[in-house]
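In response to reviewer comment 3 from the previous cycle, which asked for concrete evidence that the modeling workflow produces usable outputs, we include below a single protein chain processed end to end. The sequence was submitted unchanged, and the resulting structure tokens are shown without manual editing.
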Amino acid sequence: MAINRITLVEDDPDIAEVLRYNLVKEGFQVDVFGRGDSALAGIRTLPPDLVLLDLMLPGLDGLEICRLLKREARTAAIPLVMLTAKGEETDRIVGLELGADDYIPKPFSTREVVLRIKAILRRQRGDGGGQGELIEIGRLRFYPADHRLEVDGREVPLTATEFRLLHFLMSRVGRVQNRGQLLTEVWSYTEGVDSRTVDTHVRRLRRKLGPEADRIETVVGVGYRFRP
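The workflow returned the following structure tokens.
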């Protein structure tokens, strides 16, 4: 099995070294950058399997890096995990809106970071699901096996998390899914994660569905349902 490469962008040398050491111990290859601008150049030159990104950085902040990576075809599908301080809730939500797959608040456990990364990479490889027949509802054509969505015949790019979320909802059309179920099935964990993460991704996914956005219904106080 190929070794996964991770780009770690963190300007605190102590935090960076602890994370690098633990990730290498788990078998990852790790490239460490202390500045946002040099990190962006490195990612563009040799795209990694995952980016672990602090928000407050010299040279270029984490949100701008996220924005630029998700805009470029070569780097848009790279899973991106933000490291955020408690006081950065607004930036965290903005990051999720921009296309980040996950966030880990500081202070964090290095074991939690490793487990989150492994779960994301496992989902990225498609372990445990992602295959299936064409699902066609209204003007949507969803091809799980090809990781592809068409709206009115036009292909719409999805991040890995958006793909899993849409697949889970569309394959259970008409059934209400609560936030706890979505966190478990889509994100693979239930504790320590704000349920607003789900709301942010749903909002972003609705924008991509365009004229079919209202297919994803909010069930107040419960969760979401994909309307047949």
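The chain has a mean pLDDT of 86. We consider this sufficient to address the reviewer's concern, and the full set will be provided in the supplementary archive.
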